[in-house]
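FAQ: What does the model actually see?

It sees only this:
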Amino acid sequence: MRTLVPFDAAEPKTRLEPLLRARERETFARTMLADVLAAVRAAGGEPLVVATAAVECDAPVAVDERPLSEAVNDRLEPTTAVVMADLALATPRTLRAFFGASGDVVIAPGLGGGTNALVVRDPDFRTDFHGTSYLDHLRVAHDRGLSVRECDATRLAVDVDVPADLADVLLRAEGDAPSWLRKVGVRLDRSSGRATAVRPGGRQ
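And it is asked to produce this:
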């Protein structure tokens, strides 16, 4: 399945600043991208990275500086998937099930109301990535009379944006992202009874 993987190559993951320096955030974002591309490919997808600037990765890259919705909509073809580049918990098994789900539109909602992945099988559908895009995509599909299938998978619900998300990466991710975090000193703290990501000594 043709799979668009949007990627912010300019200043990725700025909200991870409390734990990671700018150069580290860039490296970590590219590590997650590589993990997602590997999972997409293993699930039968054919990834195309839609990036805001040139980036070296193991997939074709289309540079597009426009807002995300425009960049994606101009590349939608019958049966196109969209998978965000920061889904560090995604696995081939999860994506294979997602790609195979029935419906004119298949949606993987993110925590907080965003949209972390889509499968679009009808040319009338248009993405609307802003704010609570999950609700916006449901509305767009309803207005066009399209069938919708929701994929309620935690491995697709967690996108890595803030330091609290890193705990899930350390606990459950299967790619290179957790080992990269440990290499720079990010660890799990379970002293409070709930796992959190910490970096003893702060940013190096």
